[in-house]
Write a structure and sequence with these properties.
With 696 residues, the chain is an alpha+beta fold. It has three domains: 3-91, Immunoglobulin-like (Sandwich), CATH 2.60.40; 121-563 and 577-582, Haem peroxidase domain superfamily, animal type (Myeloperoxidase, subunit C, Orthogonal Bundle), CATH 1.10.640.10; 585-695, Lamin Tail domain (Immunoglobulin-like). Helix 1 runs antiparallel to helix 8 (453-463), helix 2 (170-182) crosses helix 4 and helix 4 packs across helix 14 (572-580).
């Protein structure tokens, strides 16, 4: 074969069947890559080489993305005689059965949904044509710091602190919760190279909250309350603080996950009990579900669709609002807005499920989405009572209190989500900026094996065969950032110099995503590569799910549940606030009438015809003595009355005669803003018991 700059090629198997969707890589004998190509439906691709190339000097590698980028050796290469000018590359692509006749690894059922088993790749390599970042293990351990090594390049120090981001601290935990919803890989091994396609994902690759519901009530009945209301998820009561003895006070119902006698949480995914904050978020979603059930049995009954049970409607609404928050709240906070706008305008460019159930790219699960580890602070400001509490126990012994999970939550550690999320007042604990520096606590994890989370992440990337961040950037059409640009004293440059590789331009993908965020966005959000991988994957999972709101909801659907916070748009804070209305005492705001002209209520009467209706959704009576209602900053005592289960009390702004069902404040001026406001009720201890936002 002579020199050519363009030739038609075809990849076939031993039976001459064309192989579509293969990645073909061409290299000269000196290792110089001339290009890579994707085969079409007929197994065809066009080889083009600038300046021409002698085909006899070219070797070909064929990789199969459907099998995680595994190589399929070229057995023969032939240009047929006659007029046909197609180079045929023959690979042995026949399926190989394991001993005993079982399916090839990676082809077993991954997970089950209400619709039945899901068959998919589970995981796959998004850029199989790229070479792995295959540096020495010692280099990765130096970069990541072995078992809390003081002065590890990626460890935050007092001399180089990570600043606060605009993003509230709760979103780092929410990111972890989302991860647990879409991926669970207990079979990979960071001590060896793994074939991504052979790994089993024990979560469905969809934002369907199977970590909360498993599948449905029929297949996971142990998650539901069959004594009180089988449509509701089981919850428990927080335990008395340590040292309170037998006389300690338990928290109200719904302040901890349901647990067995050994203290193990009865939930769909045990990982959601690995620390107190994530377990409280799991609880918030359980309470969210239960609060929606109450809403559907009351003022929200119209939200139940025809031929749909209340339980099914509650699950649907939980998932749709959760998906909406991921798409419209989480992603704008953590991703570059120009990348999001480009995806909105042009669609996804790299996460493209090829006509089959989607799988999780290892570039996402093994690297890019692990950006959240850098956002995690040393301690969380959980509530007014205790303030900041360390996430993990420390070796110093200075702090007895910590947030390590795996057991009953103490009643004084119940999370007040208004401290970790933006409820509209801007007063919240911020997350750390996204930088290639992690909190010191994450270098001493209470686990076996590598205790440094950075080391574990770096080694996982190598075990999955991930390419370097710079190679991925170039493949995605971004200008790669060389390591030198991150600074001479950056963790990567310090590590490379220590290993005599100061001129190495490449970095592990996970590290690159963190460094890119710092370099391009001052750590406030992800850069171009990280944003693209994370956003396209999460948006793609939503768009590929037939039951998700973009596909199953009416056109133009938006969150249809009450929005308890005055934030711009429906956010995670609205989910946690609405969930909190299910506890502690069962008192909820059933309805608001802001008077004529507001569009909130019946629109009848005069300007003083404003009211708020309270309902007791608990199983026991509620004594309203000492309760206070706040109307746009104006506070009034509620009457000393008892509200029986499912009984209502309507509080009127104007004058009238009190009765068992009505109470009049006797004001001579309107109290509720026609444009919208938040109504709040406080218990006798001054704690907020329920809150509801209305929009005029």
């Amino acid at each position: 074969m002579g020199v050519t700059d363009k030739i038609n090629c075809r990849v076939v198997d031993d039976d001459s069947r064309p192989l579509a969707g293969r990645i073909v890589i061409g290299e000269r004998r000196d290792g110089d890559r001339i290009g890579h190509w994707m085969t079409g439906a007929d197994g065809d691709f066009v080889l083009e080489a600038d300046g021409g190339t002698a085909l006899d000097e070219v070797s070909f590698t064929v990789r199969n993305p459907a099998q995680g980028g595994t190589e399929e050796p070229v057995r023969r290469r032939k240009r047929p005689d006659g007029s046909e000018a197609t180079l045929r590359l023959t690979v042995n692509a026949r399926d190989i059965m394991l001993h005993g006749g079982s399916e090839h690894r990676g082809m077993n059922d991954a997970a089950c949904t209400a619709a039945g088993p899901v068959r998919s790749h589970r995981f796959y390599t998004q850029f199989p044509e790229l070479d792995p970042y295959d540096r020495d293990e010692d280099l990765l351990r130096t970069l990541g710091g072995t078992d809390g090594e003081v002065g590890a390049p990626m460890m935050e120090t007092p001399d180089d602190p990570v600043g606060d981001a605009e993003t509230p601290a709760g979103y780092g935990i929410f990111g972890q919760y989302v991860d647990h919803d879409i991926t669970f890989d207990p079979t990979s091994d960071i001590d060896r190279r793994n074939d991504p396609a052979a790994l089993r994902n024990f979560r469905t690759p969809a934002l369907d909250l199977d970590s909360l519901y498993r599948t449905n009530a029929e297949t996971a009945p142990f998650l539901y309350d069959h004594d009180a209301d089988e449509r509701k998820l089981l919850t428990g009561e927080a335990a008395p603080p340590e040292g309170d003895g037998d006389g300690g006070v338990f928290g109200p119902p719904g302040t901890d996950l349901q647990r067995n006698e050994q203290g193990t949480a009865v939930i769909g995914d045990p990982r959601n009990d690995e620390n107190v904050v994530v377990s409280q978020l799991q609880l918030a979603f359980a309470n969210f579900h239960n609060r929606i059930v109450d809403h559907l049995l009351g003022p929200g009954s119209s939200l139940v669709e025809e031929d749909e049970s209340v339980l099914e409607a509650a699950q649907r609404l939980v998932m749709w609002h959760y998906q909406w928050v991921v798409r419209h709240d989480l992603l704008p906070r953590i991703c570059d807005r120009y990348v999001l706008a480009d995806i909105e305008e042009r669609g996804r460019q790299f996460f493209l499920p090829p006509g089959r159930p989607p799988a999780i790219p290892v570039e996402f699960g093994g690297a890019a989405y692990r950006f959240g580890h850098s956002m995690i602070p040393h301690a969380f400001d959980v509530n007014d009572e205790v303030g900041e509490v360390p996430l993990f126990p420390t070796d110093s012994g200075e702090e007895d209190r910590h947030l390590r999970g795996g057991g009953p939550v103490s009643s004084d550690l119940v999370v007040d989500w208004s401290r970790l999320l933006d409820t509209g007042d801007g007063d919240y604990q911020p997350s750390r900026k996204i930088e290639p520096l992690l909190a010191p606590a994450l270098f001493e994890l209470p686990v076996s094996g590598d205790r440094s989370l950075a080391v574990r992440n770096l080694r996982r990337g190598k075990a999955l065969g991930l390419a370097s961040g710079q190679d991925v950037a170039a493949r995605m059409g971004c200008d790669p950032i060389r390591n030198e640009a991150f600074g001479d004293e950056s963790p990567i440059m310090r590590t490379l110099r220590a290993h005599g590789r100061g001129a190495d331009p490449d970095a592990p993908l996970w590290y690159y995503v963190l460094a890119e965020a710092d370099y391009q966005q001052d750590g406030e959000r992800l850069g171009a590569v990280g944003s693209r991988i994370v956003a396209e994957t999460l948006i793609g999972l939503i768009e590929a799910d037939e039951t998700a709101y973009p596909n199953a909801a009416p056109d133009g659907w938006e969150p249809s549940l009450p929005q308890p916070t005055p934030t711009d748009g429906y956010t995670l804070a609205d989910i946690t606030a609405f969930a909190a209305e299910a506890r502690p005492d069962g008192l909820v705001i059933d309805a608001v009438d802001a008077g004529p002209g507001s569009g909130v209520g019946d629109g009848a009467g005069d300007a003083l015809d404003e009211s708020v209706t309270l309902r007791n959704i608990a199983d026991d009576p509620i004594d309203l003595t000492g309760y206070v209602i706040d109307l746009d900053g104006q506070r009034d005592d509620l009457p000393s009355a008892t509200l029986d289960p499912d009984e209502t009390l309507t509080v009127h702004v104007g004058s009238g005669t009190d009765s068992a069902a009505d109470h009049y404040l006797g004001r001579n001026a309107p109290a509720l803003d026609d444009d919208g406001e938040v109504v709040t009720v406080f218990d006798p201890d001054g704690e907020r018991t329920t809150r509801r936002r209305y929009v005029g």
